[in-house]
Amino acid sequence: MIDRLTRRGFILTAGAAASLLAADSDYPNKNIDFIIPKAPGGGFDNLVRVIAPSLEKYLPHKVNVVPDNIPAGGGGKGIGQLYRARPDGYTIGAIDIPGSFILQERQGGAGFDLNKITWLCSMGKPEYFCLGVGANSPLKTLADLQALSKTRPVKFTSSGPEGTAYGATVIGTKLLDIRTQLITGYKGSSDFVVGAIRGDGDAVIAPVTSLRPMLQSKTVRVLATFEPKGTFPGIPDAAALGKPELGQILLERLIGAPPALPPAIKAILSAALNKAMADPQTVGLAKKFEVEMAPSSPEQAVARIRENAAFFAKWKSSLMV
Amino acid sequence: MLHLWLSGIGGLLQARELMFLTLGMAMGLFFGAIPGLGGATALALLTPLTYGLDPFTALALAGGVMGAVPMGGSITAILLNAPGSAPSAATCLDGHPLAQQGKAGLALGAAASANAIGGIIGTISVLAILPIAKELVLLFGPPELFLLAVLGLIVVATASRGKMLRGLIAGTFGLMISFIGYNDVTGALRFTAGIAYLWDGVHLVPALIGLFAVAEMINLSVKGGAITKDAKAVAITSMTSGLLETFRHWRTVVRGSLVGTIVGAIPGVGGTVASFLSYSLTVQASKNPESFGKGNIEGVIAPEAAINAKDCSCLIPTLAFGIPGGVEMAVFMGLLVLHGLQPGPLMLIDHQVEIYGLIWALTGSCVLASFLGLFLARPLSKLTLIDSEILVPTVMSVALVGSYAVDRNIGNVIVTAIFGILGYLMIRFDYPRLTMVVALVLGAAAERNFHQTSMMSDGNLSIYLHRNVCLVLLIGIVALLVAPLFRGLKRAPAAGLAL
After folding, report:
1. β pairing state of A180-183 and A154-157
2. Which residues contact residue A235 at a Cβ distance below 8 angstroms, ignoring those fewer than 6 apart?
C-alpha cells in the first residue's frame, strides 16, 4: 500500500514538475496584464505605456503586454489586485514607493503586503523633491518660509494622504523645521503645483521634474532642493542646508509581480524588463518624461525598497496622523 | 499672431496631415457612437501607433479623433437613448423623445449643425483667450470651483419646474451616490460596504448607459413596437430641416457655445458639466420650459453646441498647466509628451504653431463629422422603425458590452443593470433624471473643493466674499434662487386682477 502511494506520489510530483518546466519553456503563451494603480495620463501611466511595447520585443514568445489602469482607492485596489493575482507571470504591476507603503499602513484592510511582492526591477532612476512657491509669492527664501512658520503653520498644497508627495511634504518640512498645514486632495502633481502658484497654499514640495518646467517658465520660484548635489543654480541643496536626510526622500517606481512567482518566470520577466528599459526607443521616450532609465536586478530593487522603507518607517507616526 | 494661425492652418493643409485628420475623424465617429468606448479609448489605442509620426501629424490624428467623438455620441444618444460618452447624455433628454415622434432626422440634423457651429464659436473664443490662458486658469481655485458646482446644482434644480420636489429627491439621491468611494482629501474609504469595485465610486459612464439606454430599452420592451410608430414622419425628414432649426435658435447655439468655452477652460470641470449646464440654462431661459424632456429641439442644440465648444477650450488648462479636464485629455497629454511637447506654461510659448494646428484640426474634424452627420441623418433615422423584438436585445447587448469595455470590469455591467432598473422606475413615476445625473457628476467635486476651501481659510466662510470670481458666482446663485419668487410675485397681482 505504502509502495503504491509512494509511487503515485512520485508520479504526481514528477508530473507536476514536468508540467511546470513545460510551462516555463512555454512562457508566455498569452497576454500579460500590466497593472497601473494610477489614472491614465499621468507620468506613471505614461512610463508603463512606453515600456510595454519594448517588453513585448524581449519576451521569449510573441504576446501582448496590456496596460490596465486601476486607480481606485488611491491605488490600493490596483496593488491589491496584483497581490491577489495568480503567480503565473501573466500579471505584473507598477508600484510607487513610498506612497504604497503609506497606503498599506493607512488601508490596513487593502489586502496587500509589499514585503511579499515579487519585485522584478525598478523603472528608471529615483527622483528627488524640491520646495517651491509661486513666482508672485512674497516668500523669497527658505528663511522667509521658516520665519512665517513661527507665526502660523505654513500651508502646503499636496496630493491625498496616500501620495508619495504627501509623505515628502510631511518629512521634508519636519526636517526643515517648518510648521505646516497641508491642503490635500489635489489630483496629481500638476494640480497641486498649480494650486501653490494660484495661492491656494503658501508653498509646495514636488518632484524636481514637476517643478523644473514651471521654474523655466518663471511661474514658480524654487527655494530649496532636496538633491544631495543640487541641479538648480544658486538654490541650496540638502548638503548646503545641512540636512543630508532630505536626499533620502525619494520617489521610486518599481515593477512587481504577485508573491511566490516561480523563479524561472521571475528570471524571464526580469531579464526582458531590463532589456526593454535599455532599448534605445524606451530610453529616448522616457527622456521626454524627464526620466532616466536605470535597469536593475530584482535584488537591487529589493535593496532599494528596504532602504526606502527603513527611512520612511522612522517617520511613520508623523505620516499616519 | 495672425501668421501663427496661418502657419497652423498651412501645416494642416498638407495631403498627409489631411489624410490622418480624416482617419482620426472616422475613428472618432465610430468610437464616439459605441457606448463605453469614447475618445479616451480611441486615443489610448492610437498613441503607440503615432511613435513613427512627426508631432504635427500625430496632433492632426488626435485632433481628428477628439473633434468627431461628440458627433458619434449624439447619433446613438438621439436614436437609441444610449449616450456614446457622458457629455452626450444631455442630448438624450430631448433628442430621443424627438426620435420617438419620428423626428430623429430633424434631431440629428440639428445636433450636427449645432456641433459644427459650437465648434467654430469655441475655436474663435479660444483663439481670443489663448494669450491670457494662464491668467484665466489661475482665476479658478477651490472656492470658485465649489461655488460653480453649487451654481450647477441650483441651475438644474430650478430647471425642473413643476417637478421641483421630485427633482430635489432625485438630486439628493445622486449626491449620496457621488459620495461613495475614496475621499481624495482625507484618504478614507466611505460607503463601500466592503465592495472593492466601489473604492473608485460609482463609475459615471456605466451609470449613464444604464440610466438612459437600458432604461429606455426596458420601457420599449414593456410598450412593444418600434421607437417611433410614425413612419411617415421619418420618411419626410429632410437633411436641411435640422440645420434650419439650429439657425432659428441661434441664441441657444451662442449661449451653449459660450457655456462650453467657459466651462472647458476651467481646470478639472469637464464636458458633462458643460452639456448639462447649457441644457439647464436653456430650459431656464425658455418661455416653454415644460416642453423640455418631451422633444424640444433646443434641448438638442444647447448641449451639442456646448460639447464641441468645450472640446476646444479644455485644451487651455491641459496645455497651459498639464491639468486634464477628463480622461480623454489625460490620455491626450501622454501623446503630447511622447512627441516632445511637454504641457506647461512653456508650451504656450515654444510650440504655438503646433497648438494652433491642433485647434484647427479639432475644428476641421468637428465640421467634417457634422457634415457626415447631416448626410447620414435621414438613413440613420430609419433605425427608429426597427421593431423592439430586434432592437431591444441588440441595444441591450451593445450597452452591456460597452459598459464592460469602459475598463474591462464586470462590476460596470452590474452598475448599468441597477441604474437601468432605476432609470426605468424614474421614467415610470416621472422623476427627472437630469437632476440626478448632474448631482452624480458634481457631487464629489463640490465636496472636495469645499474641504480644500475650508483648509485654505481655516474654516472661515468669508473667503467667498473676498474673491472677485466668487462674488460673481454668488450673485448668480442668489439671482437664480430669487428669480422664481419674483416671477411668483409678478403672477400673483395678475391672478388677483383676473379674479
Report:
1. parallel
2. A130, A222, A223, A224, A225
A15 in contact with B at a CB cutoff of 8 Å?
Answer: no
Which of B 409-468 lie inside 8 A of A, CB atoms?
Answer: 448, 451-452, 455-456
| The three grid cell numbers given for residue A135, joined into one nine-digit string | 513666482
The interaxial angle of helices B55-80 and B38-46, nearest 10 deg, is 150
Contact (Cβ atoms closer than 8 angstroms) between residue A177 and residue A148: no
Residue type, B162: G
CA separation for the pair B178, A231 (Å, rounded): 44
Question: For residue A270, with 0-12 CB atoms within 10 Å meaning exposed, 13-18 middle and 19 or more buried, which class applies?
Answer: buried
Phi/psi at A121 (5° precision): -175, 175
Full set of structural domains in chain A with CATH: 2-24+31-126+251-319 (3.40.190.150), 129-248 (3.40.190.10)
**pLDDT band at B497; cut points 50, 70, 90:** very low
Of B184, B186, B338, Cβ closest to residue A288: B338
Whole-number pLDDT of residue A3:
45
ipTM greater than cut 0.85: no
A265 vs B273, higher pLDDT: A265
Count of structural domains, chain B:
1
pTM of the model: 0.81
pLDDT in tens, B380-405: 777 788 888 888 898 888 888 888 88
pLDDT computed for residue B180 by the predictor: 92
